[in-house]
Specification:
Two copies of one chain form a homodimer. With about 350 residues, chain A is of the alpha/beta class. The first copy, chain A, folds into three domains: about 5-50, 434 Repressor (Amino-terminal Domain), CATH 1.10.260.40; about 60-165 and about 310-335, 3-Layer(aba) Sandwich (Rossmann fold), CATH 3.40.50; about 165-305, Rossmann fold (3-Layer(aba) Sandwich), CATH 3.40.50.2300. Chain A contains 13 helices and twelve strands. In chain A, the strands form three sheets. Chain A has a six-stranded parallel beta sheet with strand order 2-1-3-4-5-11, sandwiched between helices. In chain A, strands 7-6-8-9 form a four-stranded parallel beta sheet, with helices on both faces. The first copy, chain A, binds a DNA duplex (30 and 30 nucleotides) through α2 and α4. Chains A, B: GO terms for molecular function: DNA binding.
DNA sequence: TGGATCTGGTGCAACGATGCACTAGACGAT
DNA sequence: ATCGTCTAGTGCATCGTTGCACCAGATCCA
């Protein structure tokens, strides 16, 4: 039967006290003669001893388990991220408790509090809310909170670590890509912009538009209703609705579209097809995230890739940081996104860059 | 500061012993006068008491945390399932520890053992391996193992509960759909068939083919290399390779294709496009699972849907079953899959059912 | 040689909840 | 009054680990 060997058994086998075994286990080896250490290590190996987590946590108040709060692992982007987080945690000997917030601030708060009360001291919170007020109490109590996909805000609690790509650069990258291809009427499509990263992407879009000598005010920007749903599952629906709206004939339609993420972009593509248009030929579409389906789509979707594995690794390290370096300041890490050009973007019909007469 | 109130505090506040509080907490209320019970409940509410999980687990050996072992949450199907599992666990007051096996039997075993040794007594294992030998020890020790997406096998340990759709029916459904549309040359595309559910889907395919008076031996069946990779990420690559192979001109190509899952189907569609063919017009393709992208794809992918939410709910209930009803036998639950016809399937060109004259 | 200092380790009381074995007191039967 | 029985609730040892406070023995210095 597994899980039966205790620290006492190891101590007896090695001819030392349980305290010494504990000392070894907790790296208090400075005062221990090498021979003793080896005896204990031998005993541990021979008995196949594994410390009891519950006892450890009860006594020390610490745990190797991380909390991961994502909007929904049902969304391919978050699923991919969750996987990388688990991989990274495994490397550090930790586990991951999975929570789906459905982007509901109330659920976010409840999860964070519950995890905290269960003794979990490190949480990776994937939220795009501008404020962290709803979890401020717990942070003050000592929670190591790492936010992902949400750049730091001025009034965030000091200890918070933020990991994100530079969304403004990403938005710029996507938009410039379309401009370089020759597009001059470029739409921006998103659900509500009340999220930090979305508005940053939008800012990057605006910058690029202006830098090209175009005027944002003349561009078709579709941001759903400001008060509407925020879900990830709904993102595709948004995109579809946006396409229907922008190509309804009420205004001059765009030749290029920057979507706030791949799900929205995919939905937009579907909407284009509904309207009898062809993606990549009639209209260029670029997304954001590079989810697995982007490359599978027909046509393969151009997008801005987030370095998910690297970010997950960073997040796990920060969330696992030993409380020893308690003075460690909060900070913000912005990684650089990467443009992935595929077939959903091309020169606009009749553009200068297309085949010569 | 949260998590500070102990059972002693509650006992003191209610004027009873800690034992009585514990009795209430553990539903040993048969011997307790209602007034006492109410006093305790009041105290709990007023102090905001929450039992310490670690202490509980240490003492009782029980925990509310479930282990979930999926091939990879990066795969949209597993991501969607994981989400539903978490939702169901939440309803029962439980948590979910996430593990990605990458379909590696060694990792599966290590995860299961580790979870067991950490005191977790219920695990939902998403595996397609024909044998459960690699985790038999732990099951014997008392683990409540629920397998998902893997129908029970004759020599499975008795206590194992299996939850799955009826894959054979699913394969039959998909194939019959194509036959009904008029197809007579129907391929089956899969990675290795060394998995229980895939071979069941294949059996359903065979049944349907034979039932239609056609001959399986004349059908193009593509199953990758029997010894090849098994991954979910690779599934799309398989599909693409299969399309390249089946339309290389070496043999008469199929007009309809049954893919073993949606990722493979999507990859196949991409392969068709590589070959200059149009999905739904030149070739009909049907997948399996109904992942979120199936409906977004161009054209929307016909598929066989698994009732994920219902299955997740069932799995969680079984994995959380109190050890009280220890005599409860293992069993197998097969849910019925549902055909979702979309635009990737249509009558074959020149078929009787197409436009007359 | 006595006392200070250092080294390598041990003793033990927690951490917070559990649940078996027990009992104080009420009640009934004789 | 004595004894049994029942009810409602309590005492206490225990789960496995931790880490502070302590200590025996060796070494050093005057």
């Amino acid at each position: 039967m597994a899980g039966r060997v205790t620290i006492q058994d190891v101590a007896a086998a090695a001819g030392v006290s349980p305290s010494s075994v504990s000392n070894l286990l907790n790296n208090r080896v400075d005062k221990m003669v090498p021979a003793t250490r080896q005896r204990i290590e031998r005993a541990i190996a021979e008995l196949g001893y594994r410390p009891n987590r519950a006892a450890r946590q009860l006594r020390s108040g610490r745990t190797q388990t991380l909390g991961l709060v994502v909007p929904s692992v049902g969304n391919p982007f978050w699923g991919a991220f969750a996987r990388e987080v688990e991989v990274a945690a495994l490397k550090l000997g930790g586990n991951v408790l999975l929570c789906n917030s459905e982007r509901d601030p109330g659920r976010e708060r409840r999860y964070v509090e519950e995890l905290w009360e269960d003794g979990i001291r490190g949480i990776i919170l994937c939220t795009s809310l501008p404020s962290l007020d709803h979890v401020a109490d717990v942070i003050e109590d000592g929670l190591r909170l790492v936010t992902f996909d949400r750049p730091a805000q001025a009034n965030d609690p000091r200890s918070v670590v933020s990991i994100s790509i530079d969304n403004q650069v990403g938005g710029h990258l996507a938009t410039t890509h379309l401009i370089d291809l020759g597009h001059e009427r470029i739409a921006f499509v998103s659900g509500s912009l009340r999220s930090v990263n979305r508005s940053a992407r939008y800012r990057g879009y605006c910058d690029a538009i202006e830098a090209a000598g175009l005027s944002v005010s003349e561009m078709p920007v579709w941001t759903g209703s400001e008060t509407g749903e925020f879900g990830d599952v709904e993102a595709a629906g948004f995109g579809r609705a946006a396409a229907a709206s922008l190509f309804s004939g009420e205004q001059e339609p765009p030749t290029g579209v920057v979507a706030v993420n791949d799900m929205t972009a995919l939905g937009f593509c579907r909407g284009l097809r509904d309207a009898g248009l062809t993606v990549g030929t009639d209209v260029s579409v670029i997304g954001f995230d590079d989810i697995i389906l982007a490359d599978l789509y027909d046509p393969p979707l151009s997008t801005v890739r987030q370095p998910i594995a690297e970010m997950a690794q960073l997040a796990v390290v920060e969330a696992s940081a030993s409380p020893g370096n308690a003075a460690e300041p909060g900070r913000s890490v912005l990684l650089r996104p990467q443009l992935i050009a595929r077939r959903s973007t091309a020169a606009p019909v009749g553009a200068v860059t297309s085949s010569p007469a």
